[in-house]
Amino acid sequence: LTTKIDDSTVFRMEPMYQEQAEGYIMINSSFRLRSALNGGYLHALPEYWDARAAPTEEEENQMIGYQKTFEERVKLVLCSKAFDEDSLVLVRVKEDEMSNINIVKAMIEPLQSFVKSFDADKLPDRSHIMRVQRVLKDLIVFVQRVPENMTTFDHFTLEEPANNPRQKVLMEQGVIDVVLEMLRAPFDDHNKTRKPTVSLSDIKNNPDYKPLFISCQLCYRLLKQVIKDNDECMLYLSKPKVVDFMQVQLGYQLKTADTLMELFRDNRYLLERLTDQQISVFFDLIRDVGKLSRYMNFLNALLTCEGEGLPHNQRKICDMLEKNAEDSMILVKMTNQGVMASL
Asked: Tens digits of per-residue pLDDT, 98-111?
């Protein structure tokens, strides 16, 4: 990057101070990035962006720059002039950070092969699924600060403080994307060109698919833990297409509701962009699956953000409650014996 330039080199590192040995960049020293193609220096133009403003289609798909409030970000351009404020510093990666990256890289392979099996229209064998479950359980523990003296626990109920650096590693190394693919692959009809390998109703009701059912539950459990108390990971998962995909899998006991609850909780970006269709999904579940408290709790979570009421959502949900009162609410009446409820 400093001396030899070939056709694959796009940028080279140029030391800020010439006393460094030629061809070398000293650790903890400053350098600039210079284009190997036209000699321009990488220059940062500051700009401000409001996540509450309507994003462009490209930003919607890529989640570029999403933040909870006004935040500074930069636009990178090439400039013929070198500016001191564009200097970078070469630092060593901490050993624990490298260890986290290496651990995750070692774990991701069986998850990727799980997806490839379904893409090839094959159901993974039991040993493969068991291996995938072990990896998912390890990752659930990996992103939490579990006390060393805690040796036995249930991965479906384990709730310890989030390990933010490790959550970020899973996002940066593509684990979140792979887990979403794991939840898609068994039920994918490949744009209606073939039947899905498994149907959502089969995985819920057919005991032959119990190992696969547990794997999907662990996937949702992992996603919940990855976004817990981590705004960056939460916003990464807040793509509208992802939310719509998850809502399709509600009602099949895959622990989808718990993950969506965590995703929507105090997530202003999503809460201020709720559509009637997204809200109506929960009323449909209450009508079709039953008047379960977790669905009503979910509707309740859509009404506020960080203790502040959201009038737009409040009006929408109140209107839908009024229209669907018989299907969605528990009817009560006073009698001589007291209050009677009709489920």
From this structure: 999 999 999 999 99
Q: Where are the alpha helices (DSSP H) in the chain?
A: 57-62, 95-119, 126-142, 164-172, 175-184, 200-205, 210-227, 231-236, 240-248, 256-264, 268-271, 276-288, 293-301, 311-323, 325-328
| Contact status, residue 36 vs residue 9, Cβ threshold 8 Å | yes
Q: How far apart are CA 259 and CA 226, in angstroms?
A: 10
pLDDT tens per residue across span 19-43: 656 667 888 888 899 888 888 999 8
Do residues 285 and 250 make contact, with C-beta atoms less than 8 angstroms apart? Answer: yes
Contact between 249 and 209 under an 8 Å Cβ cutoff? The reply is no
267 close to 283: Cβ distance less than 8 angstroms: no
Contact by Cβ (8 Å): 78, 143: no
Compute φ and ψ for 147, nearest 5 degrees.
-55, 145
| Long-range contacts (CB closer than 8 Å, 24 or more residues apart) made by 42-45 | 42/11, 42/76, 42/77, 42/78, 42/79, 42/86, 43/76, 43/77, 43/78, 43/79, 43/81, 43/83, 43/86, 44/74, 44/75, 44/76, 44/85, 44/86, 45/74, 45/75, 45/76, 45/77
Please state the pTM of the whole predicted model: 0.78
Helix (H, G, I), strand (E, B) or coil at 147: coil
Which ranges in 22-94 belong to alpha helices (H)? 57-62
Neighbour tally for 227: CB within 10 Å: 26
Q: How far is 133 from 286, CA to CA, in rounded Å?
A: 31
**Torsion angles phi and psi, residue 2, rounded to 5:** -105, -30
Coil vs helix vs strand at 237: coil
